[in-house]
Amino acid sequence: MTTIRLKVDEISYISLFESITGAMAKDCIIDDKGYIIFVVKQGDMGLAIGKNGSNIKRLRNYLSKPVEIVEYSDKPNEFIKSILAPARIRSVELIERPDGKKIAHVDVEPEDRGIAIGKNGKNILKARLLAKRHFAIEDVKIK
């Protein structure tokens, strides 16, 4: 587990997110393409989304930005599976290289490979960013 430093705007987004959804956010990231990614406490995913997606829709309308939600897990392999959902993941293997760097090899169902990578690599980039930020995993590779 690594230490996460939040910027002022990320803290304000977390406060807004929690007041709208009632779910507890552990992290907020504003990526360079304008997406806002919230990492919610394990078990709070349903609360964050709301009935028929009502909470997430209200948040997107209020912020006028695309919003994504990822459920946190203390286990790095479960966290990576959550990030890459709805792709069906066979396994996540964590490897520590001799130089001390950690790498995650993700085995995905062949027909879900495109979903795991995402349009223009968006999903795999999100996985790399969150895995590094929360577990000091240097790279996430799709097998």
Describe it for me?
- The chain has 143 residues and is α/β, with parallel strands linked by helices.
- The chain has 2 domains: 8-71, K homology (KH) domain (GMP Synthetase, Chain A, domain 3), CATH 3.30.300.20; 76-142, K homology (KH) domain (GMP Synthetase, Chain A, domain 3).
- 40% of the residues lie in helices and 26% in strands.
- It is built from 6 helices and 6 strands.
- The strands form 2 sheets. It has a 3-stranded mixed beta sheet with strand order 1-2-3. Strands 4-5-6 form a 3-stranded mixed beta sheet.
- Helix 4 runs antiparallel to helix 6.
- The longest helix has 14 residues, at 8-21.
- It is globular, with a radius of gyration of 15 Å.
- The two termini are 25 Å apart.
Give the overall pLDDT as a whole number: 93
User: Count of helical segments?
Assistant: 6
Q: Characterize the overall form.
A: globular
Strand content: 25-35%
Report, as a whole number of angstroms, the end-to-end distance. 25 Å
- The CATH class of the largest domain, by name, is Alpha Beta
The CATH superfamily of the largest domain is identified as: K homology (KH) domain
Largest sheet: 3 strands, mixed
Poorly predicted segments? none
Structural class: alpha/beta
Radius of gyration from CA coordinates: 15 Å
Spatial strand arrangement across the major sheet: 1-2-3
Q: What's the helical proportion of residues?
A: 25-40%
